[in-house]
């Protein structure tokens, strides 16, 4: 599929979906729509991913099949400054995909334009209608199930999941990411956005996801939120228990000391944080934190090496920055 | 309000809502509708609560304002064997209240009958439209916040909450229960059924509830589920963090060893379970388990005394069976 990705004034740091699509997706990104960086190319701003021109609006995008909303703001609201681009895309007959709490399908203008011009609206955050409570059966899955967890939101859990997938595939294993957020769903084309599911069914949704792929060697479940997060810890717990993992991988931003946006809540010491995850996992699947993933994007190369070493020591298990260094054998061995 | 309560073939053990209404509610219950026990009185089956005749169907109920569905089956589905009674109630112009996952308002026949005869349909499980993510502010509430938690679902958390309320009131304190389930909402007339909220907003819903009552001395937050439950632990976590409690009270059924309905999951040893709760609470509000509540309804009086003593020893804090013995000073002192 040929797509344009909308990321106004948010690329790359506040446009996780856009970055994920450019780095791990199977779609051909023909343009990034960002009025802030218009005129540049994607790799001028973010090296090492699929390149594409950055344009100011949908008017400047070449022919594409779909426009993907590549921003996931806190709260998930639709920003009215994106309306012109979505309108233009629909008038051109494109599909529009979004992972927002505000559904495109609830917007009368978008519904009308989609009908008139033959495009489709895809709300990636909309859960299936037939979810149920978990049955507690995810632990029976044959594949090795690895769940990524974090010290906060946006610590690289999705990135770590895809990097583990790629490293396992390089070893000849049949590995798949189990996507639980809008970016992962957008990248892979399947999954459930678990934080949108009603709370009673959240673990059940994860259980269904883990039981969906057949004959895999390794499933990497994308975690969400964090156990010490005052708002999102419930989702984290539902994924931790609903996936019944064999192993956990703890993701952290180097140097981060407080929960982002909730600065009065400090991130617990790492060894303590590991113990919180393991204590809570124990009654369901007895998983331990077997590896660490550190996001060192704010550091230079030398400091990054030191930071990974320090992180490794704090956790007592192999660690890596998966973006900078990939997933070395030692880390993959610890996980599998 | 004068009400009838529907509890077919479920009273009292599988009709928590009915029992709660009879024990703690302000409504006058004029009849319990239960084809199994028809002809008896409520107190023949369950001593120590508001009495009422038990009748076989809504046809035998004297004049009332409303029919309340007093059963909350696993999964929360509407049972078609209740349809005749709901139909009769609506034809008589009564309101109908239910805390099911299946909404009365989504049933065409009920909507039509309510409109025709002037009754109202109240889906107590339906959350407000304007919920948001938690802001992490519940800890700033002036009242002492006590959250009841459990080793499983149906361990008496709601009962414990109301008994603590009543004991605090007897001491002259202004105390209120913060209801998070359909029964508590039905009894008190306010609250949010948290397990029905989308997962991202569950902690936010609890935060809003805790911040709603003004000038209270004590708020007792009704917990849900259990941290070692394979399906409901996410809701438990959202309440634990969203309420930012000062104290936790652990509820348990004497002698229970496995999660009900998930028998392959054993309940962790009590001291370990306490530590799981405290470890997870620590990053948000540092609450500890300060008292225990034991449901000894399956035991005789002598065994109950022993069971409470054993429970107290396992937890290392004061304990009681609130139904049998109320909430003694020692327990209330430990909590407040």
From TrEMBL, chains A, B:
SUPFAM superfamilies, sorted: P-loop containing nucleoside triphosphate hydrolases (SSF52540)
Domain D-glutamate N-acetyltransferase-like N-terminal: 35-127
InterPro entries xrefs: DgcN-like, DgcN-like_C, DgcN-like_N, P-loop_NTPase
Top-level taxonomic group: Archaea
Residue span, D-glutamate N-acetyltransferase-like C-terminal domain: 133-327
PANTHER family to which the protein is assigned, alphabetical: DUF1611 DOMAIN-CONTAINING PROTEIN, GLL3100 PROTEIN
Listed name of the protein: DUF1611 domain-containing protein
Biological source species: Haloarcula pellucida
């Amino acid at each position: 599929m040929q797509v344009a990705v909308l990321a106004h004034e948010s690329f790359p740091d506040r446009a996780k979906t856009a970055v994920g699509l450019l780095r791990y997706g199977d779609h051909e990104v023909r343009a990034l729509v960002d009025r802030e960086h218009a005129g540049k190319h994607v790799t001028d701003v973010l090296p090492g991913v699929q390149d594409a021109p950055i344009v100011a609006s949908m008017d400047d995008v070449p022919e594409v099949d779909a426009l993907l909303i590549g921003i996931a703001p806190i709260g998930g609201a639709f920003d009215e400054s994106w309306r012109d681009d979505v309108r233009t895309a629909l008038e051109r007959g494109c599909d529009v995909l979004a992972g927002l709490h505000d559904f495109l399908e609830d917007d009368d203008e978008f519904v009308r334009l989609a009908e008139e011009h033959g495009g489709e609206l895809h709300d990636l955050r909309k859960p299936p209608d037939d979810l149920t409570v978990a049955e507690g059966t995810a632990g029976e899955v044959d594949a090795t199930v690895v769940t990524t967890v974090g010290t906060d939101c946006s610590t690289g859990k999705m990135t770590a999941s895809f990097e583990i997938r790629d490293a396992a595939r390089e070893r000849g294993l049949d590995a798949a990411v189990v996507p639980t957020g809008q970016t992962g769903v957008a990248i892979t084309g399947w999954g459930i956005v678990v934080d949108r599911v009603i709370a009673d069914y959240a673990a059940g949704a994860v259980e269904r996801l883990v039981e969906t792929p057949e004959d895999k060697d390794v499933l990497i479940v994308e975690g969400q939120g964090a156990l010490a997060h005052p708002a999102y810890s419930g989702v984290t717990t539902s994924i931790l228990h609903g996936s019944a993992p064999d192993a956990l991988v703890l993701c952290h931003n180097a140097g981060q000391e407080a929960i982002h946006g909730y600065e009065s809540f400090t991130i617990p010491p790492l060894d303590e944080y590991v113990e919180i995850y393991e204590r809570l996992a124990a009654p369901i699947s007895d998983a331990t934190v077997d590896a660490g993933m550190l996001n060192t994007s704010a550091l230079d190369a030398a400091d990054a090496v030191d930071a990974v070493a320090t992180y490794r020591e704090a956790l007592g298990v192999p660690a890596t920055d998966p973006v900078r260094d990939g997933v070395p054998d030692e880390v993959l061995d610890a996980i599998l």
